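Form 12-C: Joint structure prediction
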Amino acid sequence: MNHPGPTRLIVDDREWHGAMPAALAACAAFAVEIRRLPVGDYCLDDALLFERKTLPDLAASIADGRLFRQSLRLLKATLPAALILEGSARDLASSGMRVEAIRGALVTVSLFMGLPVLRTRDAADTLLTLSYAAQQRRTLANGGLPRHAYRPRGKAALQSHVLQGLPGIGPARAARLIQRFGSVEAATGADLDALSEVAGIGPVIARKVRWAVEEPRGIYVREKGSNSRHSGGPRQHETRTIASH
Amino acid sequence: MNHPGPTRLIVDDREWHGAMPAALAACAAFAVEIRRLPVGDYCLDDALLFERKTLPDLAASIADGRLFRQSLRLLKATLPAALILEGSARDLASSGMRVEAIRGALVTVSLFMGLPVLRTRDAADTLLTLSYAAQQRRTLANGGLPRHAYRPRGKAALQSHVLQGLPGIGPARAARLIQRFGSVEAATGADLDALSEVAGIGPVIARKVRWAVEEPRGIYVREKGSNSRHSGGPRQHETRTIASH
DNA sequence: TGTTTTCGATCTTGA
DNA sequence: TCAAGATCGAAAACA
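Section 2 - Result
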């Protein structure tokens, strides 16, 4: 649904300092509301989430490992989220952080975690970007433009995380499971044969996964659609040790 | 998909011009191969795909609408892909394109299409970024974030552990889910109403769980009916999926 | 509105 | 010195 009227911008109260209040006052594009947000710094039309960081902020976040956690939290939010990086490389001079570390972190966040990263020059520029984003979202939501395969990026990460709870499943196999089955629901519902078709998953791991996923009352097997043989051997007993990998 | 030894870099033959050959010669990190790629300009370890554009290139792509199609093709490729933007805003001076147009396009590509965008200064910098990406991919094994190394033994504990990967689900609710549904498979397959019947799980958490478990397609837009303020309420608004194709 | 449960941050311990 | 584990507090969601 689209909100009529001006773009609604919710700003986290902790973010209400520095150049931002003045920049917002000078910008008539938003109906601003200041409130504590559970995650992120800015929320547009209740539909887009942004975390703003100056480059020194970013350097600090990298140094103490906060960036990783924060990005993860943004990705887990059900709203599409992005990271806004404000400032130029010059601002880093005093932080003592090497530019290489920044670059590496951005590759991780952007490419591997799938969190979009946008760069802006200053606070006013950030607001401009926000207004672009809001505008485009409305257009897209109206169906005015053809919709393209937008993937809520962080979801894959979360799904992968869930599947990694399964025995024998780490990041790599979890990613392939999602790729092959499309969802956690489908992956946990897959039978032995389907699981074994996934690259990197053989009969042994497939059976472990089924074992973990199935109902414990297991002597009389009632498999859903599968008419394939039921794991040739005896049902694995509960006391069996599951090797972690 | 994992290659031992040096990073394998396939460069599209059409990309073999300008500063790149020299920069590559000066960079010993890659085993380079020049070949025609079906999509993208660079391919790392047969696992990551990159399209490189200088800022003037980008401006031209925007002007004739190519950017959009190219991004879509990259997204549709089976490999994870990213766009590398090379150069600084100064390079745009002669192109006659306004910086705003660039910004708008980047918001679209990065945020709404979900194609990661990385910025670099020059060819050497681009190669550096590529090498970071290759390095990290090997470390992460293409999957994302490793979950706890520790995995419980025993079926009940393991099942609980798997479910605890879901948002809003900790030990207590995980145990109840197992109790109610009997298995991970059944729990992940349960619909909203069934989930809500479980003690300690209400509409909010039920929706979060379904969100995490379902297939990740579509743009999430806030729904019409909820015009009430959500102060203190969850960030997770009721969402509606707009089918994307 | 009160209680339960989860989640994030900090601190500690051990390698 | 850094990483993993446990603990604590606060917020959120359920009943």
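Section 3 - Comments
The CA atoms of residues 35 and 120 of chain B lie 24 Å apart. Residues 218-245 of chain B have pLDDT under 50 and may be disordered.
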